[in-house]
Structure formats: C-alpha cells, structure tokens
Amino acid sequence: MTGPYSAAFPALGTTARVLVTEEAALGPATALLRTRLAEVDRACSRFRPDSEISALHRAAGREVEVSPLLADALSAALRASWLSGGLVDPTVGGSMAALGYDRDFAEIADGPAAAPVPAPGSHWVLFEPARRVVVLPRGVMLDLGATAKAFAADQTAAEIARRTGCGVLVNLGGDLAAAGPAPAGGWQIAIGDDHTDAVAHPGATITLTSGGLATSGVARRTWRRGGRVVHHIVDPRTGEPADPCWRTVSVAAKSCVDANTASTASVVLGAAALDWLSSRGLPARLVSSRGAVRTTAGWPEDRRERAS
After folding, report:
1. What's the CA gap between 82 and 36, in Å, rounded?
2. Which sign, positive or negative, has the C-alpha torsion 257, 262, 265, 267?
3. So where does Mg(2+) get bound (predicted)?
4. CA distances from residue 208 to 7, 106, 186, 219 in whole angstroms, order as listed
5. I need a surface site. Which of 38, 49, 60, 180 has the fewest CB within 10 A?
6. Separation in Å, CA 191 to CA 4, 126, 172
7. Domain at 231, CATH number
8. Annotated binding site
9. In-domain check, residue 178
10. Distance of CA 175 to CAs 17, 125, 133, 227, 232, Å?
C-alpha cells in the first residue's frame, strides 16, 4: 500500500480528517488531532456550559484571564475581523442565537421568527493579549465558528508535521491546512458543495502543496425559522443570513485562517466579492446560486469545470 494514509472521525460538529505521507505517522497524528480538537472544543464552544467561552459570557463586564489556547483563537478571530473590515465578526453569537442556532446543529428545530440582531462589532471585545485578559460587555456574545476550525487546522497540521517529520494535510469540514513536505504531485483536493461527498462528486480538483484552503457555502448547513430557510453565514451588519449570491466560495491562502476569512467574507459580500478577492490577489472559485462558476487571481483551471 502506498500513501497518503488517512483517518477520520467526528469533531467540532463536522468530520475531521488527517492525511500523512508516512504510514507510521498515522496513529500518532490521529491521536494528536483528537486531543487538540477536544481542547479547542472545551475552549471555544458556545454550546457547552463548561467551555471557556461560556464562562466569559457568564462573567460579562468583568476581567477574565483566559487560557493560552483561547487567547490565540480569539486573536485569530479579531484579526479576521480587522482583515475583512468586520465582514467576519466574532460577536455574531447573539445574531446566531436569534436565528435559532443556539445549540449543536443536529439539535436545531424549526421555531418562530425573531427580530434580527446585528453584531455589536469586535471593537466591543476588550482584549489584552500580553496578559491574556478579556472583558466582554453585557449583551456581547462570542461565536468563533467562522475561524476556530480554520485556526485548529493550521495549528494541528503544523504540530503534527513538526513531531512526525512527514507531510500532513488536516481537513476540518472543508477547512484545510497543509504542512511539511507534500507528497509527489501535491495533495489532490476535491472541491464541492458538500465536503462529505466532494471526492465522489467533485466540482473541481486542485493541487495544494502548502498553506490553506477553505470553502464556505450556504447549501448544506440550513434549517427553518419562522417558516423560511436560513443558513449559518450571517451578515454581521444586519444579523440576517447573507444573501445567497454564492452557493460556495473556495479560497486558497497562506494559512487556513486567512482562506476561511476570505471565503466567509465573500459569501457576505455577494457580487462585490469578485473585486474584493482580486484586489487582494487571492485565488478563489465562486459558484453562484445557479451553478455558474467564476474564478479570481490565478485559480487553477480544471478541465472538469463547467459553468452553466
């Protein structure tokens, strides 16, 4: 049998997969990934009453010293907000709760419509990185979902590569990070509307040798609220689900966090995303609600790519 070698398991409300170039590294890589993702969940989940995020919400208005892990995850989220001009905002927790996303996705049920709750904005989060001290004003709820998985992918891929010395690809529900020496020909990545069957039904296949790749979309994680279909990518400015201009957006960048920031911001931006991505030199593939495909900034052509 030749590599790469892979293992998968459920984590963070999605499927976690690790691929390595050396067979002997698969066991240690899988164990390390399980451990690190459990730590991320305990720090960042807004659905667990025992998480650090939940403790921050309960301590609203007071200084809280947070763990190094949550401090790093929060730093990544605040940086994403700055890079995106607030289009990706960690204070959308209240917006998500108003839409009914106040528990694990599998437990969401239809409910009555509620007034939208715009995000207060990341400037309300008082954070001193050197002291790892956070103050959340009352009424500000964090949701690191837009960046926490991507942050975890970057961190775990780098650590596994450092410990094993081999090539690593970590895929957390469509948030991918590569580290270490890639296999011959690079990592072959299938992209589709649904990360669970992208290999069987790819919309495109590209090669990744380093850095990150993220796909954000509105086609899969949907539910009903007040009789209408809503999805999990919220426009922080309005508190409403982003208009479904793009069914999916895939972006490649130097890190998975940067790729995820850009793909999420692009869904929120709608048609303006094409110029926004091009001006930043970010290679991207955008699929419209009707299935038409647009690409930016040197995204590789795929002979199976068809726009309808």
Report:
1. 26
2. negative
3. 146, 264
4. 19, 31, 6, 24
5. 49
6. 18, 38, 13
7. 3.10.520.10
8. 146, 264
9. yes
10. 10, 25, 28, 31, 16
Q: Which two tokens stand for residue 237?
A: 């400015």
Give the annotated binding-site residues for Mg(2+).
146, 264
Residue 303 resides in a domain: no
Any domain includes 305: no
Between the CA of residue 168 and those of 32, 94, 110, 152, 251, what are the distances in Å?
A: 12, 36, 40, 14, 19
pLDDT in tens, the chain (308 residues): 578 999 999 999 999 999 999 999 999 999 999 999 999 999 999 999 999 999 999 999 999 999 999 999 999 999 999 999 999 999 999 999 999 888 888 788 778 888 999 999 999 999 999 999 999 999 999 999 889 999 999 999 999 999 999 999 999 999 999 999 999 999 999 997 755 554 545 568 999 999 999 999 998 778 888 888 888 899 999 999 999 899 999 999 999 999 999 999 999 999 999 999 999 999 999 999 999 999 998 898 754 433 32
Instruction: Judge whether 306 lies within some domain.
Output: no
Residue 58 CB-density burial (10 A; 0-12 exposed, 13-18 middle, 19+ buried): exposed
